[in-house]
Amino acid sequence: MLGAPREGSTAEWALGASCPPYAARVWGEVVRGPATTVLIAALLLAFVPGEAVAAGAGDVGTSPGPSSQGTGALTGGHLIAGAGGTYLPVTPGDIGTSGGDPRNPLAIPPPGPNPQGMSCPETHLFHVGPGSPTPGGAVVAVISIHPGFTKNVTGGYDGYDRQFQYAVLDAIPAGGDPADSAVGARATANNVAGHIIAVTAYLRVRGSWVDAKPVAPYGGSCVGATFAFSPPYVAGEAGVPFPPGPILRTPPFPTGTNLVAALTKSWTIGSIDTLPGGTGVTARTFVHIPTCAWTDSTVPTTSAPYHALTATAVNGYTLFLLYEVTVTPGVVVWSWGDGTTTHESGPVERAPSTLPMYDPSAQTWTDPCALSHRYASVSSGATITATETFTISITVSWSDGATVHTQAVACDAVTGGACALTIGAADGWQSGPHPVEQIEPVPYQPPVVP
Predict the structure, then answer these.
(1) 3-state secondary structure of 278
(2) Spatial distance between the Cα atoms of 177 and 163, rounded to a whole number of angstroms
(3) 39-84 confidence digits (pLDDT tens)
(4) Could you tell me the strand order of the sheet in which 94-95 lies?
(5) pLDDT per residue over 81-124, tens digit each?
(6) Strand partners, 387
(7) Sign of the CA dihedral running 416, 419, 420, 421
(8) Distance CA 64, CA 96 (A)
(9) 3-state SS track over 322-362
(10) CA 101 to chain centre
(11) Could you tell me the strand order of the sheet in which 291-295 lies?
(12) DSSP 20-42
């Protein structure tokens, strides 16, 4: 039954306008449910221009979303150097219903032993309060419905809902502003992604009940009643299907040690070079002057991103899954063989551009090195080593048309987290033992190579 105060009630209701901006204006009470908004109201028989009108008692389809350029960016399961982008989903050609419809009041028989010939649907006149708009003598139902929409050749959508006999060509126009997606905004082809799309149905003319059978249960329907419809509008947010967990957790490339091997196969780990000493692993160095050290390598010194783009179909949507792999260098720990260590943010991969020079006025040596160590005492041999741990992490992200989601993906199946690769002395980052000798305070000159 369509609820309202009965004629003669002592209640005084002052009813206010409560429809979306693009719906015809009505006066009524809003009753909000989880899926629909039902308005039980009195309505003037003058409607906004351009409304759709249908008789009596629509079906559903799939969900909405914008088009995307992601198909052209698919990497075929291969990792590509560099970061990826954000790719909107490709939606089904049609937009399905995004919420359940309420029961059609034309299918509800009036109360009584036999509803045949009775006026329908059952309603009650409002007893309006002072100053409230006058309904003009008509009592109707106002209901939010959620039609399906089929894309047409113009890029817009034709609407349909068999239950309410809603059939409107180009109900959702092509184009539009994707940012204009607040609740109540007129639905357009560019703002339907990730949103519930509703239409307000107005029962403008009452009908009469016609029994389907001459004996109980009579069945039947309300004949002669007609609906008018507002343009489709945004009625809330509705997320698109979520990719299944097993798909998200399975990148299109190997993980674990296979991934580490693939990413590092182009690296040159090399060895440690020193000055004084050059490339000679046992060349001598000296106390008090800077002993420069660097790695003759091409390992990453800053975070190195890679990506792979794949696609998966979920309930008619094509969602683009961007897997990003980041190789992050760690702190390099240098051990100088005399009990001291130095921590650097990354490997030093170049020799100094000039040599250390003795400054007589300061009575010390200049230090042109990016990394150096001054030995305090002589030694028969100091072995220099460097150790660094790289972290390889994986994330997957995708857009549902309104929000970009990101979650971590395990690289190491044992820990469930990132992979780790440690490079150290066993891999070549070792030099020495270097004899540490005394030196007179004169500028150092490299030996002449014959």
Answers:
(1) strand
(2) 31
(3) 223 222 222 223 444 443 322 222 323 345 667 778 888 888 888 8
(4) 94-95, 148-151, 157-161, 166-172
(5) 888 887 888 766 667 676 667 778 888 888 888 888 888 887 64
(6) 333
(7) positive
(8) 7
(9) EEEEEEECCCEEEECCCCCEEEECCCCCCCCCCCCCEECCC
(10) 29
(11) 272-275, 291-295, 372-373
(12) -TTSPP-EEEEEE-SS-EEEEEE
Q: Pull the structure tokens for residue 222.
A: 């309300």
User: CB of 433 within 8 A of CB of 282?
Assistant: yes
d(CA 56, CA 162): 9
Query: How far is Cα 378 from Cα 388, in angstroms, rounded to an integer?
Result: 28
* Nearest partner of 317 among 68, 59, 98, judged by Cα: 68
121 preceded by a cis bond (ω within 30 of 0):
yes
- Which tokens is 154 given? 């113009």
Tell me 5's DSSP state.
P
What is the identity of the amino acid at 248?
L
Q: Using the CB atoms, write b or e for 285-298: b if 16+ within 10 Å.
A: bbeebbbbbbbbbe
Strand partners, 52: 229
- Cβ proximity of 369 and 353 under 8 Å: no
Strand 285-286 and strand 430-437: pairing? parallel
Question: Residues in the chain, how many?
Answer: 450
Q: How many CB atoms sit inside 10 A of residue 24's CB?
A: 22
